[in-house]
Specification:
The complex is a heterodimer of chains A (295) and B (161). Chain A is of the alpha+beta class. Chain A is built from four helices and twelve strands, in the order H-H-H-E-E-E-E-E-E-E-E-E-E-E-E-H. The chains are: A alpha+beta (295), B mainly alpha (161).
């Protein structure tokens, strides 16, 4: 029992009364919550406080890093050799695809010039490593090892080699918290790559499933269709792969079809993600858009 | 306030808090992650009972704020919940200390339920409600951990008097 070793002097009559403390700190908590949630006025405070949290993340990381280092240094020759062969093969395939991409990119640029449209996306990327800490069990969030010092900002799009991962939710001094596209509170505006139908892909809280609740029964969407970001939210630049459609159920009595998709990014296996600095897509004013249509 | 409060030094409290913070973010497989006990909250209750003048309301509030920072929740949310629990613990401190362990565990369970309710409620107001019943699991695993924690810390405190 706690009593056995405890300090038995009463606290009554020392310091400010308990109720006053509760009242004061309670008010402070509420003010802090409102400031943080409503206005984001506490970004700087969070920046520094999360810097204080870094040593804790570091301690948690150590065993994993040690393990990776150990397995890395004792990897046997044979495995390294096969891995090397595999990577060379992958590189060859990627190179050949890149050749085609270069040509397409050039063509795209020329076509855009002809149409006097905005230039292609000029982008900068930075690789960030996912820190192996657990944040909240029911939310899909991860912490990465890049922060405000590296120019990371709130709402920044994050990708991996396969598709869109999510966006930056909170920025610390040298860490940042990402919210993944599968989080139940997150959604991405998407477009069916085949025909350009626009919709919204919402997270479901299930790591392998996105739902598209606003696809009408008549809309032309099939199983296996690629969904790419449409860029309408001005967060995710247009044209990045998001998911493939896995399920379409049409019930003619309903207005909307039941459409589900599987994220392309390897959300549960990633160790590294790509932070993206893209030029903000220019959203044309309504008049401009009408003119463009009339042309 | 002096550096030591009775027999329990401030250093000891800090050390346990740091360990609890590390364990709060240690990556675990999902099924364990869901049931991860609120070790830091249990420590706040424990130290509020056995070293009330080191572990006051401010201490509880700061611990809650640390959880907010580490877990990336809205600042002040866990701080408020920790504060409420700590207030009640201080209020009933003299009674809780003479409870037999079983009764003490039940009281702690009630405090944990209240804590979870405050977090759940503020979650709802902020607009990120997590409504699965599974969010209540840690309350029970934490309550089960209470006797173990008391046994360990009491032994440690007694030895290092």
């Amino acid at each position: 029992m706690v009593t056995l070793s405890s300090d038995s002097r009463p606290i009554i009559g020392r310091g400010p009364p308990l109720g006053a403390g509760l009242f004061f700190l309670g008010i402070v908590s509420v003010i802090v919550m409102v400031l943080d949630h409503r206005g984001g006025y506490l970004e700087t405070a969070r920046l520094w406080m999360s810097a204080a949290a870094n040593p804790i993340y570091a301690v948690v990381q150590t065993p994993y890093e040690l393990w990776t280092w150990l397995t890395g240094s004792f990897a046997d020759r044979g495995r390294l050799r096969t891995e090397n062969a595999q990577l060379t093969e992958q590189l060859r395939v990627a190179r050949s695809q890149l050749l085609r991409f270069e040509a397409l990119n050039e063509e795209n640029r020329r076509l855009r010039e002809i149409r006097e449209a905005s230039k292609g996306l000029s982008e900068r990327t930075l690789i960030a490593e996912i820190i192996n800490v657990s944040v909240q069990p029911f939310r899909h969030m991860v912490v990465i090892n890049k922060g405000a010092d590296d120019g990371v900002f709130r709402g920044q799009p994050v990708l991996d080699a396969f598709g869109v991962v999510g966006q930056v939710m909170q920025v610390g001094k040298s860490t940042a918290t990402l919210i993944l596209i599968t989080d139940a509170e997150h959604s991405v505006p998407v477009q069916v790559n085949r025909n350009g139908i626009r919709s919204i892909a919402m997270g479901t809280g299930d790591g392998a499933r996105l739902s598209l609740p606003y696809m009408t029964v008549e809309s032309d969407v099939r199983r296996g269709d690629l969904l790419v970001s449409s860029g309408l939210d001005a967060i995710f630049p247009a044209g990045y792969p998001v998911a493939t459609v896995t399920k379409v159920e049409r019930n003619s009595a309903e207005t909307f079809a039941l459409v589900e998709a599987k994220p392309l990014a390897q959300l549960d296996r990633d160790r590294e993600v790509l932070l993206l600095w893209a030029d903000k897509p220019k959203v044309p004013a309504p008049e401009e858009a009408i003119e463009a249509v009339q042309k | 306030m002096s550096v030591s409060d009775g027999r329990i030094s401030r250093l000891r409290v800090t050390a346990t808090v740091v360990i609890a913070l590390i364990l709060a973010v240690l990556p675990l497989p999902h099924w364990m992650d869901v049931a991860r006990p609120y070790l830091l909250l249990l420590l706040v209750i424990y130290w509020s009972l056995s070293a009330p003048r080191i572990a006051g309301l401010m201490f509880a509030w700061l611990c809650g704020l640390a959880i907010d920072v580490l877990k990336g929740t809205t600042l002040g949310q866990h701080a408020l919940a920790f504060l409420v629990v700590s207030f009640l613990t201080h209020k009933f401190q003299l009674r809780m200390r003479i409870f037999p362990l079983s009764q003490q565990t039940l009281t702690v369970l009630l405090l944990l339920l209240l804590y979870e309710f405050v977090v759940f409620w503020t979650d709802g107001i902020i607009g990120y409600p997590v409504t699965t019943w599974m969010r209540w699991i840690p309350v029970f695993t934490s309550a089960l951990l209470w006797p173990v924690l008391v046994a360990i810390l009491d032994t440690w405190n007694r030895r290092n008097r």
